[in-house]
Recover the amino acids of this structure.
């Protein structure tokens, strides 16, 4: 049962960051270490994923304290899937960072902080203790705040203030919820809570606590009406940083929502309606926001919000098919959104701007890169058989089956607006004739071939991951099916943790 | 602020405070104290010295930049956390030697974690305070 392998990925990123701290001014060594660390982390997470897929849930009692008293790390299929996706995204971003992040930022410790961030994400996915989850959230927030402000431009600081203010507010809600929950149950262990919460006589206070967590995680995962910090901060940092933020940070909030609202607070009718309403409004506001933006990264930020709505709505339906769709959508979304922000960075390198009006002619000049990007864009839109198609099918079918016609309509509308926005992006950036603006400079041509590869390779890796998800959908559906089963029937989880 | 009284006092207080910080560090496992408090006291010793003689003088005495001991402390703490893995135990399990060492008492991996914290706290506090004092003068 005791298995240190569970948190091996956490340790790898911790030690990578520490070794990098010893080499403060050697950016090349840090870069190599970073890629090596991410590669090892990736291999370990693949190994862990296969182990959990073949076997069952694994647990590790940190410091050898028995389960409900000490902190326990739990690797169930949902956790290890998220860890695996994080590792893939981290690997791609660390390769991209070698060229995509300026030397000045590297000197201020970009790489160690990046690894602390990935460590925090991995830890948060694996922990089985709600206070420990809070601590990992703090690790993530502090590192992301540093990454956001490195460079210190005015726009960055403005975005960072909004980001920090909202996230501290979210942490306060989260912490208050933990306090109340500990007060009424006397435990912080998730499995123990899952057994004790249904026994509480006054279920009203349990529902109240659930709302605290809903608001806290809702801010972090950027749902309507708490999303506004996201579009106003994600377009400011370098694209490599924005890729981690866009791909992974909001998904951490979603992961926590799924963990809490399937294991601890099983949604009742009221909560289901709340989730569905949030889902629908998030889809609509995100989609309409994306329609009017001309800066690529601002537009992508609104698309993130829009697609979070799909997932939240899936949680609101709370049946097996919807959960399969929602988890599948998260898997697809992490790969695609990370990649889209990297692509935005590449476009900036190619043309020196992200304003769609000034861009153009990339397809004529770089047809191969454009086709690679097209695969990613099609995956996002969900052209069958690419990865975005399958989860939407599940969600839509489940929505119609449960007579949630508003949600079904908003899925369709959200998908169409995504299609429209992406088509606009394609025609403006790739098909339109090249702009004659003097501001447009190609910084990509001047790069050495090796550095060109470092920019395109991560996009290719993530595109392959998206293709794998889309073309190998049967396997992903098997995995998500098991995850949905674990969510609905939580006895294997509690039994694995508490041993009874 | 150059004052003879403060300078002579801090010359005597520096070793005493450092000794006290080590005392706090060592008794920290079962009694009030520990790496964090010990580190703060040690940092205060150097801050007092810098108030009396000026920050540049203290930096010269230290011979290393405070920033450089942060990773050292982190690595010591991280290794003490990782050590049980090699004995087939879960991460962060406390390992203890059988016989107490004179003066220090029972030594375990928790002590090394505390030493790591001690160094990190000294590094962080001194980095912050020295940066501020060098910026303002």
């Amino acid at each position: 049962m005791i298995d240190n392998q569970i948190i091996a990925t956490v340790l790898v990123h911790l030690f990578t960051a520490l070794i990098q701290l010893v080499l403060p001014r050697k950016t090349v060594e840090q870069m190599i270490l970073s890629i090596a660390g991410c590669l090892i982390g990736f291999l370990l997470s693949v190994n862990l994923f296969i182990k959990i897929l073949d076997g069952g849930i694994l647990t590790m009692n940190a410091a050898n304290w028995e389960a409900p008293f000490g902190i326990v790390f739990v690797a169930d299929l949902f956790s290890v899937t998220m860890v695996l996706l994080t590792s893939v995204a981290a690997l791609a971003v660390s390769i991209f960072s070698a060229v995509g992040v300026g030397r000045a930022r590297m000197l201020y410790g970009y790489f160690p902080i990046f690894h602390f961030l990935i460590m925090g994400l991995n830890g948060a996915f694996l922990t089985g203790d709600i206070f420990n989850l809070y601590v990992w959230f703090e690790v993530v927030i502090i590192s992301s705040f540093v990454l956001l402000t490195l460079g210190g431009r005015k726009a960055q600081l403005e975005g960072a203030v909004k980001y920090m203010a909202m996230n501290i507010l979210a942490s306060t809600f989260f912490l208050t919820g933990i306090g109340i929950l500990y007060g009424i149950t006397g435990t912080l262990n998730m499995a123990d809570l899952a057994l004790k919460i249904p026994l509480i006589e006054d279920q009203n206070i349990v529902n109240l606590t659930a709302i605290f967590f809903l608001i806290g995680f809702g801010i972090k995962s950027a749902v309507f009406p708490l999303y506004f910090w996201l579009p106003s901060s994600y377009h400011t940092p370098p694209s490599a940083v924005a890729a981690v933020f866009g791909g992974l940070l909001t998904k951490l909030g979603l992961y926590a929502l799924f963990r809490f609202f399937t294991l601890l607070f099983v949604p009742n009718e009221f909560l289901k309606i709340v989730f569905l309403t949030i889902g629908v409004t998030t889809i609509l506001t995100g989609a309409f926001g994306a329609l009017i933006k001309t800066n690529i990264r601002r537009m992508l930020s609104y698309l993130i919000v829009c697609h979070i709505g799909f997932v939240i709505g899936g949680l609101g339906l709370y049946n097996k098919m919807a959960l399969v769709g929602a988890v599948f959508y998260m898997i697809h979304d992490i790969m695609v959104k990370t990649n889209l922000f990297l692509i935005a960075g590449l476009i900036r390198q190619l043309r020196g701007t992200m304003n769609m009006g000034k861009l153009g002619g990339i397809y004529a000049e770089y047809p191969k890169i454009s086709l690679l990007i097209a695969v990613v864009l099609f995956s996002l839109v969900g052209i069958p058989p690419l990865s975005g198609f399958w989860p939407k099918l599940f969600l839509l079918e489940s929505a119609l089956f449960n007579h949630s016609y508003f949600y079904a309509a908003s899925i369709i509308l959200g998908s169409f607006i995504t299609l429209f926005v992406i088509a606009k992006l394609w025609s403006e950036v790739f098909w339109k004739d090249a702009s004659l603006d003097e501001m447009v400079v190609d910084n990509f041509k001047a790069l050495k071939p090796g550095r060109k590869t470092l920019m395109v390779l991560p996009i290719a890796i993530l595109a392959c991951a998206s293709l794998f998800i889309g073309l190998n959908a049967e396997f992903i559906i098997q995995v998500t099916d098991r995850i949905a089963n674990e969510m609905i029937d939580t006895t294997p989880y509690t039994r694995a943790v508490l041993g009874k | 602020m150059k004052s003879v009284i403060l300078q002579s006092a801090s010359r005597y207080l520096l070793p005493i405070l450092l000794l006290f910080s080590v005392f706090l560090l060592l008794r920290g496992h079962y009694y009030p104290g520990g790496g964090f408090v010990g580190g703060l006291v040690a940092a205060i010793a150097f801050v007092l010295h810098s108030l009396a003689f000026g920050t540049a003088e203290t930096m010269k005495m230290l011979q290393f930049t405070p920033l450089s001991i942060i990773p050292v402390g982190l690595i010591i703490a991280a290794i003490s956390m990782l050590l049980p893995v090699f004995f087939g135990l879960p991460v962060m399990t406390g390992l203890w030697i059988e016989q107490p060492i004179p003066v220090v008492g029972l030594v375990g991996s928790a002590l090394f974690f505390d030493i790591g914290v001690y160094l990190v706290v000294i590094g962080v506090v001194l980095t912050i305070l020295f940066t501020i004092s060098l910026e303002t003068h």
